[in-house]
Amino acid sequence: MNLREYLKVISYSKSLEELWAVHSEQMASYGFDRLLYGYTRYRTEHSLGDPEDFVVLSNHDPDYVSGFIHSGLYFHAPLMNWALENEGAISWRAIAGALSNGPPKPEMMRVHEFNQKHDVTVGYTVAFTSLSARSKGAISMAAERGITQDQIDAVWDEHGEDILLMNNVAHLKILTMPYVPPNRGLTKRQREALEWVGDGKTTQDIAMLMGLTTATVEKHLRLAREALAVETTAQAVLKAALHNQMFVMEA
Q: What is the pTM of this model?
């Protein structure tokens, strides 16, 4: 589809699954058939937060995602470090330069060998603009097997501005959509209790509004804290809000 058609479809997407399917198909039309999108709202000086709290979307095989994200390889990837300090797009040709500037660090070599094993060696990375010191998002786009970096660079020379715009719009849309990390979803009752807390209601108020006992309300809030892996109800409200799990429209 052309740029206008793509932007229209993405703008009206109602779920992450729908958006990701459209975006993956569109990027594949330019030769990028394997994507890995990541976003965190919990960045600190020395950490990107708990990987379980990352927004991760990918059409790579599960072994690649597990090895790269859950085994911590992402933290030592040269282009990940580039993305943390920059905005815009960069060709993976930069990796060759990084590896040729003296002996690479062992961690960097492990990332390089892992990517070679999975034939993730040609492509582009896009780093998105951050509006908070705690947030960062980026997408890795691997080219189809058999395509050279010279060939994908030529594609970028011709279509790069459109591709960059599409990725930025997709990223901004993702930020508005509910995301439920694995094992961290809320039940309807847990979400409702947190919503009332977010509105400034006391436990007694919530019990009356929900037609429950205060003990049951406290149980829902405790289970919500456990589901979101936080210590306080205030943290639970914040995390649920950041993942757009509160005040959502019921299907």
A: 0.83
